[in-house]
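Hey, sorry for the delay on this. The queue was backed up all week. Below are the sequences that define the complex (chains, strands and the ligand SMILES where applicable).
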Amino acid sequence: MAVTHSEADKLLQIEKIGITSDLPIFPQVVIEYKSKTPMTDGKTVYLPPEINIIPTEVENILQDPNLTLYIGSLFHELGHVRYKSAEVNLKEYVESFEVPTVAEVLMQLLEDSRITGLFRTEFQDDRGKILDMTTKFFLSKIKYHTDENGDKLSPVWNFAVMLHSLLLYDKLPGHFGSRKEREEKQRYELEFLSTAITNEDLNKRNIYTVKDLLAYAYNLAKPLVTKGYTVLETAKIAKQLYDYVVKAFNINKEDKEACKQKYEEIKNQTQASCGGIPSQDVDISSTSDKPKLEDVEKNSSMKEDLRSEFVKNLERTAEQEEQAASEKPNGEQIIENIMTGYKVSPRRGEGRVSGEDVEREIDKFTSDRFKKDLVRIVLERLRQRGYSQDKLEEIGKDLVKALYE
Ligand SMILES: [Zn+2]
């Protein structure tokens, strides 16, 4: 059954407070239910009027996995708000490239990886899990574009999706979904990764196949997901990657218009842009009044502004974690293992996350435990904001009533 926004709103509003109450912009983040695909301009989060993606017959909306996708999509967008994706002039940045569409695809997907990584490091409770489950669910639904009618964006898009999945989970989308969904994706992934790259510059850098390029990109971008980096670092890495991708897939200025058209088409076709899938979900056009990237780079107080206290905290946590692991990202080995796994156990991948598993997991996170956590989180936030014990108890009772009755 579809979960409508009027059914979900109460929960989503509470979750919003849990994620944004300590931000200086609080309480100005608003949710509006009028966008087909979730998106944000950094102040307003746009969500669909209803979500009806997973077929289900449950009567109680709190057990409807579509509600979890609603919450997961909200978390994704709030991740962009919290980690300030839209605080710099991305419009000008993207338009400064010869082929802006390629820059935009890369920027969006790397930002999606960054904010998802930071969110799950900062919210290591059910909220991080819900965002992960939502992201994996949409990765399971992603469709690769294999048409060969001369457009040059498809490989960039497919490459971007693979990188996104690899950065977050050390897995390709071929690991997620039902058996049929996995088979389809794995077939394409094996073929795509083996595609030769004939560009001389890249060959000089030991990049001979798409697999080599993906390993390079993974090693370059992995710190975005594990360290407390800002959107500035994403922009830097996107720029570096842009040159490689344009060369690898032979994209030139004349492709610009074709790319643009194809991108629009893809966006309209795929429902997958809901949630964690690379999509145009940060409204780049709305950032034109924001400071230029290069000015922020030069001005240390602006840079500091972007790197808020919570990002510093994250960095410390991430550094500790990283020291424990203390290994350099090794994309080559990870991808090699994935491809070998596909071949040894054809079409099955690791099979750990089947479509059914994802749906079961999603179901689990709308359980009572989750609701109790929610109440606890909200009360904790309000306590930090100076609410008295009496007031907290009163609000707690109201919340329990609202959630359970
Ligand atoms: Zn996003």
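The chain is about 60% helix and 5% strand.

I'll add it to the shared folder too.

S.
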